[in-house]
Amino acid sequence: QECKVQNSSREYCKIFAAEARAAPGFGAVPEILPLYLVYRPANNIPYATMEEDLGAPCQQYCATERDGSLVALGTSEVVLKCCTFQHWVYQWTNGNILVTDMEGVGWKVTNVRIATSLKGYQGLKESCCPSVLEQFAATHRCNHYCSILGLKTLEPAKPKGSRSPSMGRKSAQSSPQLQK
């Protein structure tokens, strides 16, 4: 499940990165590292996870507090862009998924968790309290990067099907995933 959460979040992050790269002035984008499940039949613990060594201690960018609230830990560019990524995923999935805890080194992010509004939404099971979704919609404060991507101010969503936040924008620019 840990691999599924991190690798699914990574796929969302790739789509987010494509949209962010197409937005003038957005700059660098966080990358969620892949997490691999390794089978070691000769070992007394046959399964392990493996990911890239970051070469330095991880810094927390976003964390879930004990009361279920989500907090950004700082105001650095990477923290603000992680918050924008959270907003984007929440909007992309119409309030069904939120990437919560994130830590890393520089632009490389790991140890992500998610909250989902529906049990098993897209095969994902929440790894933190689902009430975080409601609190996020009520407490998220858009930053400069949310504005660059044209993300809408959040209101508690009624879960529906997924679509790109950019599809609702009124601009000449179309979503990068539709361009070839």
UniProtKB/TrEMBL annotation:
This is Alpha-protein kinase 3. It comes from the Eukaryota. Keywords: Disulfide bond, Immunoglobulin domain, Kinase, Serine/threonine-protein kinase, Transferase. GO terms for cellular component: nucleus. The lineage of its organism: Eukaryota, Metazoa, Chordata, Craniata, Vertebrata. It comes from Dryobates pubescens (Downy woodpecker). InterPro entries: a-kinase_dom, Kinase-like_dom_sf. The keyword Ion transport does not apply. PANTHER family: ALPHA-PROTEIN KINASE 2-RELATED, ALPHA-PROTEIN KINASE 3. GO terms for molecular function: ATP binding; protein serine/threonine kinase activity.
